[in-house]
């Protein structure tokens, strides 16, 4: 039995399976939802098997075709790849269940449903391929796969605002990925390899390398929507159908960020990155405050959630200034934890928002007034999911922020402390605003029936998000296996 | 100064001037035509750089298919209708772009200087040596084909996925409409097509076969074939309705699916993704190239047509959802 | 001044021209053209930096990468054009200038 598990390269099956399912869903549109559901059921199992295989065996890197690395493409199942695969499998499974209710098999949304499944499975496969890739050019191809699928999914709604948002997103992503690709080209021209590990060993602090690094980081920052470059995100994430919004906020934004993490800690550690780190930290801090303030001002629930994503992306970028020698592991693991927590929490929030929209007929926050009955339950689910976004104690978001604050204090960068705290307060404020409307004492006349597939999956995910901190030990240990950081994780304040 | 260097200089200056002109020209149709010329000149640049494979692909895909896409798109957009009115107030980002440009130009000039230094300092031999050494066991005799279909086959597999995904995206967006009005097909064009089509098929087959030992391969061949398909559509050929369902979708997906199946089979049998057995490498690559060519030809032609087939099973449903989508 | 360096520099200039046009122009087809030119610049850097010495033969690996890149950018072009046509059919505009406030409803 153990032989069977160890011998299969489960993390590779996790990329082939959704891609194959996507083709099948395209070929058999009438069965697309079944194909999607079966795949969504199988992938978490594969993820568990991949984790089991990784803990039992030592080898973490193989190359496609078994060609030696400067030539072949390295595929890795290190800690970061495995936790991202697992989170994607969990979130993806729940989003798939939700989508089954959201896109009814019969009825007038049938054509949207038949294209949703192949696109979503393509996106899933692309994400998985991206997480395991250890090759800069392969990362470009996978990133483009994810981007193209996201563009089509945003446009699925079909209205002019959705189309405009999709097109804007397409141009922005093209810009970002071409800048990234130019950097890759320069690195290849200098070192004749695009393998992350080999480059990490060879790179010297020349000016050319700094130019390449700046291009690549700028491109990825644009794709992951850090503060001044976030302008495309709210429209793109709100115009899409609810399951798609969940996918975009929970997973797609993280793709570019995972590449950034890999670049920063594995490719460019030899380069002089302190100034860029501080710049990213500054932009991240502004993103936290600005995104939260904008969220506080929004009239519509989905826009509020989208701006909250902008703020959360700001937190993710605090990793870069905080990762000094002794705080490296704390900052890195904080970033990984926050990614996981945010993926669960934000996916649940967008799904609930979709259900509220379905029930109340609008996602205007003022229309939530007096939402007793079914919407009341939904608002409670929404609040549970938001717990991790605010950073309430047992949630993953809480531990991530705790690690950040620790790293900030140990590395003497106390000014991040008020920013993290005020971000938390602002998040609590915009969530409380939603609750304030929902609990107004107003009678409503009628409530439509909600399919149970739209009600329970978000609840499950939001409970997982809220309690994530209690089970965080295993994911953290897993993520640290094969991590590019070696210092101990600091969980207590101290020198 | 050598003659070759002067030629390079003239070519590059023309390319840059063309790029600037086409992006600045006030007539969008002219811009598209200039873009096609730009693509052809770029192919010349690839030849100068010793990359004939890229040159072929650039001429066939970069200039040819992209040009066809742009022209068809332009026709559907209604050509000159808008451009005067677009000189409205610049947005913040657009005002920002001047400093961005300066911020890019200055680093690029310094980059060129730095490159000069770095080229003198460390002339890495590239991976050409490694590719040549391993060419014998790769199952093909041409370096670029070996890299595409064997050494970096995982990239190629994913890129086939991107192609199929692009088509699914296009189908999800729109329904196919006729490229041209059916009644204005001139008999001369039909005659020309009758003459050209067999030639195109032969050329495509030749380019595919060529890819085993010289520049050429599935992409270039598929692009030529798709040009043939477009020509056929142009003279009024339409796919029979009964073929527009599953058989069309199978044709579109076969390249990617066979690649995926090969990946799964190699993973099952040898634990390494896309590690072909030594004795089978040549025939596997041939199989992959053949199905890829068929799929690429169909995909590119379908992308130019730009929409899902009209006889879809959900046609009446589809219209109502489009209306609904417009309202939400 | 070696030819490889000349081509690398031109690639970067093409990239910059495309970048500028992508940001400044509002007509959608023009943006698509600009993105294509940016891509061509990147590909030129890839190939030109792979030319080593005077052998005149480019490294096959970046050539394969550029072939992949050309196909990927073709895919984006195709989807962008269909999106633009669709948007044009709904709004009558050839730009992205959708009124932000009204579009939300």
Entry keywords:
heterotrimer; B: 328 residues; 12 helices; globular; C: 105 residues; mainly alpha; Helix Hairpins; 4 helices; elongated
What's the layout of helices and strands?
The complex is a heterotrimer of chains A (495), B (328) and C (105).
Chain A: H1 2-7, H2 10-27, H3 32-56, E1 61-63, E2 74-76, H4 79-102, H5 110-132, H6 136-154, H7 160-191, H8 196-202, H9 207-223, H10 233-239, H11 242-267, H12 274-297, H13 301-317, H14 319-322, H15 328-360, H16 373-390, H17 396-410, H18 416-438, H19 452-467, H20 473-480
Antiparallel strand pairs in A: 1-2
Chain B: H1 3-24, H2 28-48, H3 52-77, H4 92-121, H5 128-134, H6 143-151, H7 153-173, H8 187-210, H9 218-234, H10 246-270, H11 281-305, H12 315-327
Chain C: H1 3-24, H2 28-50, H3 60-91, H4 100-104
CATH class of chain C: Mainly Alpha
Distance between the termini of chain A: 47 Å
Runs of chain A with pLDDT <50, length 5+? none
Principal-axes geometry of chain A comes out as globular
- What is the number of E strands of chain A? 2
Percentage of residues in strands of chain A: under 5%
Spans of chain C of at least 5 consecutive residues whose pLDDT stays below 50 are 99-105
Overall geometry of chain C:
elongated
Largest interface between protein chains, with number of residues from each side: B-C, 91 and 77 residues
Q: What does the model show?
A:
The complex is a heterotrimer of chains A (495), B (328) and C (105). Chain A is an all-alpha fold. Chain A contains 20 helices and two strands. Chain A has helices spanning 2-7, 10-27, 32-56, 79-102, 110-132, 136-154, 160-191, 196-202, 207-223, 233-239, 242-267, 274-297, 301-317, 319-322, 328-360, 373-390, 396-410, 416-438, 452-467, 473-480, and strands at residues 61-63, 74-76. Chain A has a two-stranded antiparallel ribbon with strand order 1-2. Chain A is globular, with a radius of gyration of 22 Å. Chain B has a domain at 141-313. Chain B is built from twelve helices and no strands. In chain B, helix 2 packs antiparallel against helix 3, helix 7 packs parallel to helix 11 and helix 8 runs antiparallel to helix 9 (218-234). The radius of gyration of chain B is 23 Å and the shape is globular. Mean pLDDT of chain B is 80; it is low at 80-87 and 313-328. Chain C has one domain: Helix Hairpins (Orthogonal Bundle). The radius of gyration of chain C is 18 Å and the shape is elongated. The chains are: A mainly alpha (495), B mainly alpha (328), C mainly alpha (105). Chains in contact: A-B, A-C, B-C. At the B-C interface, helix 1, helix 2, helix 3, helix 4 and helix 6 of B face helix 1, helix 2 and helix 3 of C.
